[in-house]
Design a protein that fits this description.
Blueprint: H1 2-14, E1 20-25, E2 35-41, H2 48-56, H3 61-78, E3 85-86, E4 96-99, E5 107-113, E6 118-126, H4 138-159, E7 163-166, E8 169-172, E9 175-177
Parallel strand pairs: 2-6
Antiparallel strand pairs: 1-2, 1-9, 3-4, 4-5, 5-6, 7-8
Amino acid sequence: MKTQLKNKLSLQQKFDYISSFELVRLNELSGDKCCIYSIRINDEDNTQFEQFLDKNCNSFKEEVLDIFTRLKAIGKSVGLRHGFYKDNEGKPGDGVCALYDMQNSHLRVYFIKYGSDLIVIGGGGEKPKSIRTWQESKALSDANLLMQWVSSKIREATDNKEIRITDDGFEGDLNIEIED
């Protein structure tokens, strides 16, 4: 129990610069099969997913295109299939997953899964083949821990009935204010 409290406090401290985040529906990717959201932190111009795309589009153009295409297929035609992603990339029960690491690819992007028809996509980064786990990369660690933290805040908002998860995605106040 002490370890859980310590981990929760350290995550809160790591992200104490965040005063709010907004759940933003990505209409270009969302469809009948899956609603896809990302998060915009502290009124930034871009969502975490857009920042991921911008950061990696020059170095990993083909992989960024593949990720975008797979997300569009998930939203519009095939839904969230187990072959597309890796479960259990965070803590038990937080829903944090990674888009499946394709053979010879270098990028990993994290998302929170709510059933098979709603995801919140965050950021990620390069996963060199020389490392085995996300904890060995600062960029991947930061992105993964952020999604774990966001998952806990979404859970609090749903528990407090500030937002609801429906067949059409999230409903309610999608701008989540962080209490001190």
